[in-house]
Design goal:
CATH class: Alpha Beta
Oligomer: single chain
CATH topology: Rossmann fold
Strand content: 5-15%
Helix content: 25-40%
Largest sheet: 7 strands, parallel
CATH architecture: 3-Layer(aba) Sandwich
Number of domains: 1
Low-confidence stretches: none
Structural class: alpha/beta
Number of helices: 8
CATH superfamily: HAD superfamily/HAD-like
Length: 189
């Protein structure tokens, strides 16, 4: 397991070189795991523009993305629409099955998929993905078994750290990748 640098231990640079897709849990990965209730009972969540830019960079580099959430929440759909992520599973109780379905629908092998999660319900998916990652503040049982622990906490740039590690392992210059056109849609599903 490496902390913020997957080339020190755990997976090798070649493990990251083969990554073609990143599948993300939402709450506790893209968000800080908290939520607010508005005066009308609506649920609010905070997402980070650091991670938004990270996903945009990954898409510009050709990575595919999917969101798998245990929650049924319209904010997940809104985020996916903003980021042009077409493969979204909400209310998921079997994230490993959802990950297998994503792999089958995209033709991407599990060994070529990175999965980022933060809690015990993510472990089955992490165990079958080719590469697993977690934010710094993930559950202890998750931190004990992932390939990569981000230095940043959930909702504060942890996703971007993983994406940049993949891009750099693939020999890509992150500022150069930014200059590439952003795809208008992620046709991974």
């Amino acid at each position: 397991m490496a902390e913020g640098d997957p080339t020190k231990s755990g997976p090798t640079k070649s493990d990251l070189e083969q990554i073609r897709a990143l599948v993300l849990d939402v709450d506790g990965v893209l968000t800080d795991g908290g939520f607010w209730w508005g005066p009308g009972g609506e649920e609010w969540k905070r997402f980070s523009f650091v991670d938004v830019m990270g996903i945009s960079l990954g898409q510009r580099a050709g990575l595919k993305f999917a969101l798998i959430s245990g929650e049924e929440n319209p904010l997940v759909d809104r985020y996916a629409a903003k980021m042009n992520i077409r493969h979204v599973v909400k209310g998921c109780r079997d994230k490993a099955a959802a990950l297998r379905e994503f792999a089958a629908s995209t033709g991407i092998e599990l060994a070529q998929i990175a999965y980022m999660g933060d809690d015990v319900n993510d472990l089955p998916a992490m165990q079958i993905a080719g590469f697993s990652a977690a934010p710094a503040n993930a559950a202890r049982d998750v931190l004990a078994c992932v390939h990569f622990i981000a230095r940043n906490s959930a909702g504060n740039g942890a996703v971007r750290e993983v994406i940049e590690a993949v891009l750099r392992a693939q020999g890509l210059d992150v500022p150069e990748v930014f200059l590439r056109p952003r795809p208008t849609a992620d046709f991974s599903a």
